Here is the input.
Amino acid sequence: MIKELSDLGKILRKQNEEGKIIHDALKDEPISIDLIIKKDGSFYKFETIEKIWRPAEAITAKKGKARLLLDKAEEVLGYGEDGKKHELFIRKLTDYSYLDILKPVFDFYYTNKESGVKKALSEFESQVDEKERNGNIAFRIANDDSRLHEKKKVYEAIIEAYENNKKSKLGSSKITCSICGEKGNPVEDVPHGMIRGVPDGQPSGCALVSYNENAFESYDLTGNLNSKICTGCARTYVEGLNWLMSNGETQTILAKNKKEKKIFKYTNRKNFGADTAIVFWTKNNQKVSELDLFDNPDTGAVANLIESVFGGDQKKAKYVDPDRFYSCTLSGSAARIAVRDWIEMNLDDIKKAIALWFEDIKVQAWGEIYYSPLYSMANCAQNEKSDNKTTVSRIAAHLWRSSLKGTAPPLWILTAVLKRIRIIENADGGGTKESITPERAALIRLIINRNYKGGTMLSEKLDDNNYSPPYVCGRIFSVLESIQRAALGKDINAGIRERFFSFASTNPSSAFGRLMRLSQNHLTKLKTEKAGLAVVLDRELQELFSKIKEFPVIFSLEEQGQFAIGYYHQKQDTWQKAKNSAEMKSATEEI
Here is the structure.
């Protein structure tokens, strides 16, 4: 994983704008304030700017160190501290005293100290708002738009000092980097770098690899010798992962209130809950547009994907060298990153798996084929009354792996979604309109079909050839509900769904005996008011009874899922028939 992240970082360096100096000695740092001085070193003014990122000297940790020409007010001016940080900054500056281009800065601190650094310190609070004072300060010469630390000569001096330091650390020893495989690279005992924006992590960043305690070391090795990653590869994998976590663009969308709203859409990252993020990329850093379908599964685009994947000439594709796809699931854990999953696959296989995923989750919803967004499927199994929202991220991570690898989701997700359905069915106030939503139906169908491939496969719509007892029982329950609704009206406080769904889906033989007695009463009432509808529903009920010999005593977990799908399919079929029958509408819900 680290090797692929490092390779990505190297590609990103090559793709950077032409002419930009890229080196391990340099790292992009934020700038919020320009300290503008005159050529004689006297202070001119402070200028606050919108935060920008520019290459500067790379330092691995701030403790006991200072960065050349770019740092906070404590280091640059000695503002609000005991002088130790400022002393480190001046000491670093002195190391580059041979650079003529820095003469105005030295005059600012020494020759014209009164009109230079002392005046700047006295003017700092009046010219820079309090909320801006914590930003990095860069030096600029008046009437020159470029900053001193970005001058080519300064960069070259930083790189030369870095290379000389590297040679002195290497000495006569030869160390092979475990990532790039090159010999002679020093493995410096410094932090690899912090990853920003990790969910549930520290705002300042989290470390993917760190040996800052003895407990993390082994085999008598100290610090980074435990991993033997050279400094260059350490920097590139950190750059690659930070890019994956932040890459994207601001888009304008139309909100529910019809007003325009700006959102930031990530390109290589998906957030699954408050504590999980998934980053993905390819070896050649190409966009995989098929992954966007997980968020917005357009029916036409999905159909095109399925046709292109399963209708292509596989023999020709056999000799093509496809791109590689990578995915990493991350969570924050204090100052560290927890890697929860890693996927590495052929990109061609990824596209096939995505096409198969949509085939396995499609369901009929209100007369049309419907594809559920992946995160909506994960969210539909979460108990809304629970404060533990990590369940959603766990389910989403499992579904992500299942969608890309073509594997079966774990059965505990089926338990969670069935439990969620029962909670809704038995809720106070008579439940809700759509207890088994298209998302829940899709999730149940996916789990059962992929975990129980030897049994009867569940289709996306009503299957008259499915004689499985739990599936038929679910259909019967739906018809009984329609009979009650047609006989008693739609304003029922607690119908058979709210009172008996959980009972019927787990202990059918006991439940359906009571349900049949209730149904006869409802049919008798219906025959006096809507005789034609009573005949239609009674005939439908008798046809379903002919498909089952007896009601089982108990249903297993898989059978409970089949019951739910049978109920859902029959409900959708009833709704479809009601479109052409005004009388039939009384047996359906208001949608």
